[in-house]
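Wed. Picked up where I left off yesterday with Putative hydrolase of the HAD superfamily. The coffee machine is broken again, so keeping this brief.
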Amino acid sequence: MILRGVLFDLDGTLGDHDGSVTTALTAWLPTVGLVADPETIMRWHDVAETHLAAWRRREIGYQEQRRRRLRDLGFEYGPEALDEIFAGYLVEYENAYRAYADVPEALAAVAEAGLRTAVLTNGSAPQQSGKLARMGLADLGPVWTPDDLGMAKPDPGAFRGAITRWGLRPGEVLSVGDRHDLDVLAARAAGLRAVHLDRLGTGPEDEPHRIGSLRELVDHLHT
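Structure written out below (tokens, as returned):
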């Protein structure tokens, strides 16, 4: 089956989420009485993944996962106060958000191959669309989130819902993302092709379709 489209993940794939988080926390943590040391930053990443996983399973709402992250850091306030505190972090995070340096080259290769592009991302629709706009990628293509699909990765239904809306068949779409569980295995379970973007070299060594940079994506666009 001929490849017709590339479905990109956003955070960790097109946008430097981890780097943006570190920059944001360094600026924000001291304003709320916490030290921006490596231990606290790692703690933030850990609690974020715990509660985002619960949200992906649809056990809690998106706003609630943010509140639980703050509670795990010791903030004992009501929902409105927690939302206000988190809003301060969001300002720093969104200001810090940047695209990876290898994105323009990869998108140029996709365009040269005559393929369509779209984004499937776990996150709120307004926030993720805002990130793409700040990176100059507002016109990249359709953007689908759990807000649109009613489910999140790694549910294969998220991929099926996205490509159905895109008007393509599973075998015509290549999923590209940094999370092997969310972007690769789940995509394949839905019938898509998939490439693992393993920027840190920590992914499964037996993954046959693994790249260390989006600059290597060109080698996977003509199969």
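Quick read: The mean pLDDT is 95.
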